[in-house]
Design brief:
Elements lengths: L1 H18 L3 H4 L8 H12 L5 H13 L8 H14 L9 H11 L5 H8 L7 H51 L8 E4 L2 E4 L2
Helix pairs in contact: 4-5
């Protein structure tokens, strides 16, 4: 009875595993009938952090990763650091020099001045120091941009204030300052503004 129950559950497990795979993936487990062996084969072939093919895919993903124009630099740093951790101890492991080189070469153009400074450091930076410097450089650039935006807003507001003042002055002169043709001086007299004698 127990044997029949075991066989029934094994057949059901096999069918569930096999039918849940795409035709391409089914090729990996073709000829296997033990569910445990099927799982093992799938793990070796498809686990992105546990197979040679998976390591290669992760390494390619790392090499293609770069900061998006509108995203904070820390988002990219998190991605490539995670990929690097997954490849530790494999034949695709990313060494410090390769990591630093990739990071420097993929920074946006807004980091050009920072990159020049880094490249002229005689002893270079450790990965940890480089990451810290990159984050610091972005924070400094953002701070300067905010200050510039505030300055532009102040200048724009001042220009608008001057324009409004000039417009008001012209309006005042147009309404009150024009006497008879040829008038050049105006004095207050008899309760109204008129041309001086």
């Amino acid at each position: 009875m127990k044997w029949k129950d075991y066989q029934r559950r094994k057949v059901a497990a096999y069918a569930q595993i096999f039918t849940s795979c795409t035709p391409e993936i089914q090729e990996y487990i073709s000829g296997q009938y033990e569910p445990a062996e099927m799982w093992k084969g799938l793990h070796e072939k498809l686990d992105t952090s546990g197979s040679r093919a998976g390591w290669t895919m992760l390494a390619c993903e790392f090499n293609q990763s770069k900061p998006e124009p509108t995203e904070p630099i820390q988002n990219c740093l998190s991605r490539i650091l995670q990929l690097r951790r997954k490849l530790v101890g494999t034949d695709q492991a990313i060494l410090d020099e390769a990591f630093s080189s990739h990071l420097i070469s993929t920074l946006p153009t807004s980091f050009n001045s920072f990159v020049d400074i880094v490249l002229h450091q005689p002893n270079g930076y450790t990965v940890e120091n480089l990451i810290s410097k990159v984050i610091e450089a972005e924070a400094t650039a953002n701070s300067r941009n905010n200050e510039q935006t505030g300055l532009n807003t102040s200048i724009t507001s001042g220009t608008a204030l001057y324009t409004n003042s000039s417009t008001t002055s012209r309006s005042f002169k147009t309404h009150f300052g024009r006497g008879k043709q040829g008038g050049s001086g105006y004095v207050r007299g008899r309760g109204m503004i008129g041309r001086g004698r």
